[in-house]
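Table S4 entry, Acyl-CoA dehydrogenase.
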Amino acid sequence: MERTLFEPEHQLFRESYRKFLAQHVAPRHAEWEERGIVDRDVWLEAGKQGFLGMAVPEEFGGGGGVRDFRYNAIVTEETVRTQFSGLGFGLHNDVIAPYLLDLANDEQKRRWLPGFCSGEIITAIAMTEPGTGSDLQGIKTRAVRDGDDWILNGAKTFITNGINSDLVIVVAQTDPEKGSMGFSLLVVERGMPGFERGRNLDKIGLKAQDTAELSFTDVRVPGRNLLGQEGMGFIHLMHNLPQERLSIAVMAAAAMEGALDMTIQYVRDRKAFGKPLGAQQNTRFVLAELATKTTAVRVLVDHFIELLNEDKLTAEDAAMAKWWSTEEQLDLINRCLQLHGGYGYMREYPIAKAYMDARVQTIYGGTTEIMKEIIGRSLKLA
């Protein structure tokens, strides 16, 4: 499908990022998969070449302050298509950047954004807790005032960039009696006493991406590290989650295109019963259906990127994009793997990696069931 979303400057950016991946990631990603974490120097190189903080103003070391999500989408698409899933740039650019740009005060921006853009500061956000899952209002991590500071106690899990992160936005209760208005965002920095990282979690996919448990035991967080307004943490989360969920949909669309392309090539080359597998009618029908679904997901995702750039993307739009694209991604990759036969089950084949990496897509950022609940409530059925 011919896409009309991008301008010539975006294509130049895409070519530059492809070269970065080929030179600095491709030769090393297999090693990172074995180790379960990428080297920090790849973040420094990405920052040097302008692939971090594209929306950050130049005064803080960023790409110029233009909030154009198409650049973010390019980074995500090329990373997914090459299956370099260890890179946590999407979380950094798509999820954390809006918090720092929209909520940080001038002093905080001067303190954090230059390192954010250079790759010297790797970021994460800590929402999920053992036993809470998608129930953000069930968060138990607690921060209590002590003079101008906060004393933070609690635990988080499934935190992307959890081992490498230098700056973690932590969602904590600061006034339990106020319910959803009793949460705040506190920025915890590497080296703060009482801030500890647990194990690098052993996942079935995304093997090179460090995902960790974090614990906070009487961590003294300076008052100047409160991000946004006290008691408004839940509101801040709800405001930023649509972009995060669209980012996951961008991943899904790119993964579908990549899996479809590799499967088409495979059935052209693979022979069965004396002729290419692609010559079989069943194969053609399956791939015709999958090509149609891939195009439909691409059209929806590109349209929603346009809505986001126009500040028109709603929470319901993002929920629709997130659940539908990721469920279609799982279905497509499953059926593409089937066309690979026994070879699809071998980890040395890219379709097997696509299968393992995809499974989390319907879980993080809000499960499919939560997305449907958001949409269903908006319909005012009762």
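The first helix runs from residue 8 to 25.
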